[in-house]
Specification:
The chain is 84% helix and 0% strand. It is mainly alpha-helical. The protein has one domain. It starts with a helix and ends in a 9-residue tail after the last helix.
């Protein structure tokens, strides 16, 4: 019962913290509302999944979620910054790429991966200070698990990952 109350509290905290970001995004012009709604549902599922896997105390949750949301936003910004170039080159079949295009594609991929790694290295001490190293390991593992479960569910036509898997 106590775990449910903590999870509900975490969800409310996360919702309140992200409501400001959603309001700002809407004023700046948002993508398709259906896409936005699905993204928000997946984000809510991820919060519940991570909350279950990390078993955060209320004090940890209060400090962790704003930090995690900041990390998540920066990670998404890195992905979006490199996405148009990668998408343009990936639309060309590998056999039709010039050597220069292939080099550009590989270097863009490597740069993006390095930037994401640098971001994780930057946030590790911040996460460690809030939740400790063991829970940081659990966080990275839970993110991978969530992505795997989500992909499996999408393949099966059921996009609702359960945290007990």
């Amino acid at each position: 019962m106590k775990t449910k109350a903590v999870v509900i509290g975490i969800l409310w905290i996360t919702f309140l913290l992200s409501a400001n970001g959603v309001a700002n995004a809407q004023s700046a012009g948002t993508p398709n509302p259906k896409v936005q709604d699905k993204k928000e549902k997946v984000d809510a599922m991820k919060v519940a999944f991570l909350s279950d896997k990390l078993n955060l105390t209320p004090v940890e949750a209060e400090k962790f979620w704003p930090l995690y949301n900041e990390f998540k936003d920066r990670r998404e910004a890195l992905r979006k910054a490199n996405n148009p170039k990668l998408k343009a080159l990936k639309d060309i079949k590998a056999e039709n790429l010039t050597e220069d295009q292939a080099d550009e594609l590989i270097n863009s991929e490597l740069t993006q991966e390095q930037n994401l790694l640098d971001l994780k290295k930057e946030y590790y001490p911040k996460f460690k200070k809030v939740i400790g190293s063991k829970k940081v390991v659990a966080l990275f593992m839970a993110e991978k698990d969530f992505n795997k479960v989500l992909l499996d569910r999408l393949k099966d036509g059921n996009p609702k990952p359960k945290s007990d898997e």
